[in-house]
Each structure stands twice: as C-alpha cells, then as structure tokens.
Design a protein that fits this description.
The chain is of the alpha/beta class. About 25% of the residues lie in helices and about 25% in strands. It folds into two domains: about 200 residues, Formyl transferase, N-terminal domain (Rossmann fold); about 100 residues, Formyl transferase, C-terminal domain (Methionyl-tRNA Fmet Formyltransferase, Chain A, domain 2). The protein has a seven-stranded mixed β-sheet with strand order 5-2-1-6-7-8-9. Strands 10, 11, 12, 13, 14 and 15 form a six-stranded antiparallel β-sheet that branches. The mean pLDDT is about 95.
Length: about 325
Amino acid sequence: MRIVYLGSGTFSVPALEALLASRHEVVGVLTQPARPAGRRGKLTETAVARACAEAGRDATACEDINTPDVVAQVRGLSPDAICVADFGQMIGQDILDCARHGGVNLHGSVLPALRGAAPVNWALIRGQERTGVTTLQVVKKMDAGAVYQTSETEIGPEETAEELKARLAAMGAELLCETLGLIEGGWAEPREQDASRVTFARRLKKADGVLDFSGDAEGVHNRIRGVWPWPGGQAVLETAGRAMPVTIAASRVEAGEATGEPGTLDDALCVATGSGRLRIVRIRPAGKRLMEWADFVNGYHPKAGDRFAGARKA
C-alpha cells in the first residue's frame, strides 16, 4: 500500500523504520516543525525528522496538518492509508479523506484505557501492572476510533517511562505492519471501544514531577519512574545547611518500616515516606550529570536526618 506517515516523537520512529523496510511504499512523511529545546533553547528537529535524514528520506515539517495547502499535498500523493503515531496534532477529516482506507493510529495503551498524549507515563504513575499498544481508526474525537488490534505486555516493577516507551514503540511497529496487512487483504474487523471503560492520560506538566513523600513508598516510586526523563522527579535535599534541588531518576521500594518524618533519610540512607521507605537508585543534582546514588553519596555526603522536600510546584 501507499502510505503517508505522520509522526514526530521517539515513540513513532520504530514504526516509521518498520514501514520503510516493509513491502509498503512510504510516499510521504510529515512531522512537527523544529522547536527550541534544552536550557539554551536550541532549535531541534523532531525524532522523526532525524530518522528520515538518517534513512536518506525527506520529511515535511508542517505547523498545521489541516491547512488547504497541506491537504492538497497529501491528496497529490494518492495514499491508500495515512499512518499516525505520536504526531502531536489533531487530524481533520479533509486529510483522512485523502486516503482510501483513512487513518490508522498507533497508540501506546490498550484502549479504551488511557486515551490522550501521555499514556505510558500515566500507566506507570497509576501503578498499572500491564499495558500495551493499540491500532485504531482515526476519527475526529481523540483516540476514540474503532480498534483494529491490540498487543499487551507486563510492566516491569522498576521500568521507567523512557524504558517502557521504547519497548512499546517496538511492539507497536510490528503491530502496525500487521494491521496494514489485514486492511490490505480485506480481513480487518475494527470493533468499537467500550465507552464505559474510557480513562484519560493528559499531557504531563512540569508540576507533575514534584514529589510528595507523605504518600506511600509505592506511589512515590511509581511517580518517579512515570515522569522520567521529563519532567523528572523533582525534590529539594536539605543537607549541611543548604537546600539542593535534585531530580530523582530511579528508585525502588525497600523493605522495612519508615523511621522519621516523610522525606527524611534513615541510617541506611533510605527515604522515609508516609508508609514504607524508598531506596534512591539514580539522581541528578541541578545543573550536574545524572549519577548513581552511591556516587552522589560519596560526592555530596548526605547523612541520616537530612530531608528531601518536594520542589515548589510551577
């Protein structure tokens, strides 16, 4: 089939690469424009734009997929299907009407659970033990189209959003190619979603990374892994008479009862929570590199009684 691919983020790269290596013909790739990124605001292309450059392919950056000139461009490519993954824009009916089979979306959850922009993050934050990927029809309402196929997986107890997203992206690439084969052969049987089971996964805000150690250890741990690498688990370590902003990148729940107020380091340098204790695994002091907790201890010398407080919410 002739495919027009719409994608921007890292989640969409494996699917694009799989389509480029498949028997299908990718006749066009559209992505978000380059945006300022990082502390210095350097203009940065999307992950899909970079992947296309590495593959010797062109990617068209568009601010609005639904403008008449972009619709005309897509229509001129005569696609059989429009594949969408981690694109970042709502797709109007005029674009979908350009393709014989309309739009096929790859989503990072088992729908109807976790519709929205950040399904991988919220699956972890909410402590889910399983998730997966879904291919579905693109319709006007976000992630509400009829489902073609799903593929499920268990979530590792210490898996971060960064790790899980990469794993789901690989699963999704395989599933998307399989779904296109079903559509091409006339065997696809899309089924409507159960509206009674819908949940949502809104886009993360910086404030979602602020850690509250008064909750239970499992909940704090899930928050930390669910917000890595952005916005990261934000806290302030009060030690040696100073307040040090840090980002906690990885943790694990430690056996035993918490001693001291929530956020306080105990004799084993575990963090007390409202219920249970947490072992920090990796941490990044503000403006410094990411490091293992043992290296941080050797360099900054936190001690029992020092305290982590949640960073100020933005």
